[in-house]
């Protein structure tokens, strides 16, 4: 055909090159037309050679040309040319075009056929019952979605007519598969969640007999369904069984009924012991199903109480624990005997309430006892007779009393009364510091450090009152302090500040450190207590590291109150917040909502209504109130606090109706030098004032003079970690002068993170602040030899600098939760870590090493996420 085409073109050219006169001859016109028609026909024939053309297309061609012919092996070109194709050029083109498009569709459909013929469900056994469950398969879901989109596009094509039935059939099949798979996984997840509860827990079966029977029948149906599913692994066959979707829908409805019954049951337990609002449903079910086994429940105690971690049980003669508690252990292993035995039999929510009451009454008995015996012996001996919390509270009660007595003597005309008391304070404080240098158990050390921290503040307050010549106890300088007193008439401990009075809440706080009190904390205390006094919430705001959350927690500790801290995130919705408020209102505890302005704005306005509801009830002194349509009891000591970081990315402005419910309190960067001094005292340094000044000067200069690196931090947290190190060095080597100890810890814990260019500057600063001191590094030669061996094992060179880096990494890991290894590519970051890992292996320390590329996992996969459907938390990596 191509050859003929070329010949025709040649003829046409020849004809055109003939003489002009000939153009009017008939013979010329006839010849010219027949050549042109021939060319057109050949073009059409050429197109008809397309492999996409099927028989049905030839029939269409016959209809168009009105000539009947049969297409077979012996059809010749002459037969085709007889069709006069030159008259039907457009029709031919249309038919060919349609044929090509239809063959494309055919390909898509045959691909679908082959894909879904082989696509099968994967199954995995259920952990408890071993029945086969569907395994979620990303590839399957993606293929399903892609193919549905493809079919959608085919449906929109204008050449669909011939395949209409097939395409819509596929569409039907795949959309059924899609909806069945999604509901199936939903049912399967709910079933496996409820199965462990309704079938695995006898306790729940006896509590919810009706729903358990209901679940048994669901269980039977579900297992039949799954057994059937395993027989037909093909996805399309399995999902397109008649009536399957409606079966699954019915199962889903019945499961929802069981879930609702379970939720209502948990709600009744939460109302009976409101602290259950702060544990997840899974934990709560675990507690309830082991309700009759106090030893089992005791591992959950730390989630319900601030510091009560374990109970001491009464033992039977054959050394088995009985259902009676004799005392409580804190997380730090401090033991406090209960004032009366506590009975742990019966339902769990009932006996947990008894534990709560006996915890409070124990502390309420101990405080007056300790107050009475305070003067019987020197304080540094008296301290060891009582639990840390009691000793601390009584120290504060006595401080208030003694200052009051000093003012009384001042008014009687004894001029030096307050100065004398200040001298007594200094003597008492130094007696405690000398204890810190000696050998103490970890618990006692923590206790003395905490009392020191509070004492230093008490000393400074009195010194300041002497300086400003305060004459009476009514002046603001004294009224604005948090003053504890024991009221004999009421048999209660109270904390007064300005005109606000808070009753001590007797929550057992164990042996925990307390904040260093600076003028800033004092001011924040006044604002927060005033807001409680006025039945409002408190809202400390300020940049990171100014102690917003810590101050709130510390005020709670000062009045023996349980403080729950909630980290707010974008995932919080009004339901989870509502549940928290419901719990707080019934427990009377304080809730501190950290970074509150990260919650979405539309949620915040609902929260405002909830908070207002609680605050109005407290103001009206109600015993019970209506919260979100439920009547719940109210403990009026409840306090709500929110902390905010202004002007951060991803933070919202609070709506006006919410702002009106909280008293704002601006926080600024605190006085580092004061904090540093008090912490040095608490770590057992005598010459704390001078050392603190050197320390802070060094950090201020570092901030200004060293280069600005992303990983430098000269803030409060960095200061604190160095102080802890200095304290432990001081105790390891008590003979060494204090300035040497501090210099060594400053040098050895900052050098690893300082870039090479900055090292001379840093060493220069240290040299200026601690002149003529050159303390050798504390080296562990034994460890270094292990490191060298490890480095050689990894086929690397054990040069001194590299070994030093490995040792530094090891030193940092002992005082840090996590360490970043920073440097340019090829500087041996991974090798340093590998060497340390290998060293630990040689030392038989069994290190665990897991590589994780943060870009390969999403935030939710890494940190976990609340599933919006089930409100269950799924842990991240």
Compile the SSE list and pairings.
Blueprint: H1 2-16, H2 26-48, H3 55-65, H4 77-81, H5 89-118, E1 123-125, E2 132-134, H6 138-155, H7 164-198, H8 202-207, H9 209-231, H10 235-239, H11 244-272, H12 281-289, H13 294-297, H14 301-304, E3 308-315, E4 321-330, E5 335-343, H15 348-373, H16 379-382, H17 388-411, H18 417-437, H19 442-467, H20 476-479, E6 483-487, E7 492-497, E8 500-503, H21 519-533, E9 537-541, H22 548-558, E10 563-567, H23 574-587, E11 590-594, H24 601-619, E12 624-627, E13 630-633, E14 639-642, H25 656-659, E15 662-666, H26 672-682, H27 688-705, H28 716-732, H29 738-750, H30 759-769, H31 781-793, H32 800-815, H33 829-842, H34 859-863, E16 864-866, E17 873-875
Parallel strand pairs: 9-15, 10-11, 11-14
Antiparallel strand pairs: 1-2, 3-4, 4-5, 6-7, 7-8, 12-13, 16-17
Q: What is the compact description of this entry?
A:
One of its GO terms (cellular component) is axoneme. One of its GO terms (molecular function) is dynein light intermediate chain binding. This protein is mainly α.
Question: Can you describe what's shown?
Answer:
The protein is built from 34 helices and 17 strands. It has 877 residues and is mostly helical. Among the domains are: 2-101, no CATH class; 123-270, Dynein motor heavy chain, linker domain, N-terminal subdomain (Butyryl-CoA Dehydrogenase, subunit A, domain 3); 515-670, P-loop containing nucleotide triphosphate hydrolases (Rossmann fold); 682-769, Dynein motor, AAA1 domain, small subdomain (Helicase, Ruva Protein, domain 3, Orthogonal Bundle); 781-856, no CATH class. α23 (574-587) links the parallel β10 (563-567) and β11 (590-594). It is found in: Cytoplasm, Cytoskeleton, Cilium axoneme. InterPro entries: AAA_6, DHC, Dynein_2_N, Dynein_AAA1S, Dynein_heavy_linker, Dynein_linker_3, P-loop_NTPase. Its main location: cytoplasm. Pfam families: AAA_6 (PF12774), DHC_N2 (PF08393). It comes from Gallus gallus.
